[in-house]
Amino acid sequence: xxxxxxxxxxxxxxxxxxxxxxxxxxxxxxxxxxxxxxxxxxxxxxxxxxxxxxxxxxxxxxxxxxxxxxxxxxxxxxxxxxxxxxxxxxxxxxxxxxxxxxxxxxxxxxxxxxxxxxxxxxxxxxxxxxxxxxxxxxxxxxxxxxxxxxxxxxxxxxxxxxxxxxxxxxxxxxxxxxxxxxxxxxxxxxxxxxxxxxxxxxxxxxxxxxxxxxxxxxxxxxxxxxxxxxxxxxxxxxxxxxxxxxxxxxxxxxxxxxxxxxxxxxxxxxxxxxxxxxxxxxxxxxxxxxxxxxxxxxxxxxxxxxxxxxxxxxxxxxxxxxxxxxxxxxxxxxxxxxx
Length: 339
Known about the structure:
With 339 residues, this protein is an alpha/beta fold. Helix content is 51%, strand content 13%.
């Protein structure tokens, strides 16, 4: 072999050196190609991840010209502000305009993501309040709150005239206990592009607790709300602006309320965002023996934790600071933030 290599003028040492160099360069090129492939794959995965994150961010943000709600950490808190002389929960504590405004500002400072202002008590047995009287009660409060804070203000009413007056002065959301029974309310919400809550109620506030009956409370309430939500879409309200509320305590017995809470996941599964209001209600008093609504804070906290952990989007409460803490812990423990 040595003689043969020498005959061609290629010493063995030189051939070996050339072969080693060739093999080394080939291996290096293969490594570069492999690393390039890995880099491309990594970049591709990163791009997909970012796109998913952007999609998730979009799904978790409800934004409209008048406001913005961020569900990226899960459930948010709506504070109740009753500008009435006869509310079941606070007994007219905030009927005075200045006190109502002060309380609204405090709820915003305590972490309320929305403040729901109403001028008519809808407690069981209550009578309707005239449109004029409601406007006198809520409009000064809404106007001032809109001027002083950035938290979206919701108007709690089923009367289109009141909703229109509130929206003209800065309100950014409608909470309708009749689930838009008046098409004009739906048309107003669609035209103003504001989020709207549709609640279930059997009967009226005056009659709703007189022996409420259902064959299947969960199925009937669910069917009603989905039907009303679809009607709202037909009238121009975008799906992401629609919230459904099973109406705890509105034409329901204790057992009805408990069945709805146990099945709240079925409402969440409709793909409409869900709002639940259990705060200080009488069914909690029946379970705990607490007659005074203001003493039902811990019972309320239990229902709020259950709802937040299940994936409810909004809980409507009177005790904002305390329930903000409850929601934070429930979300952290259940790891359902961003649902």
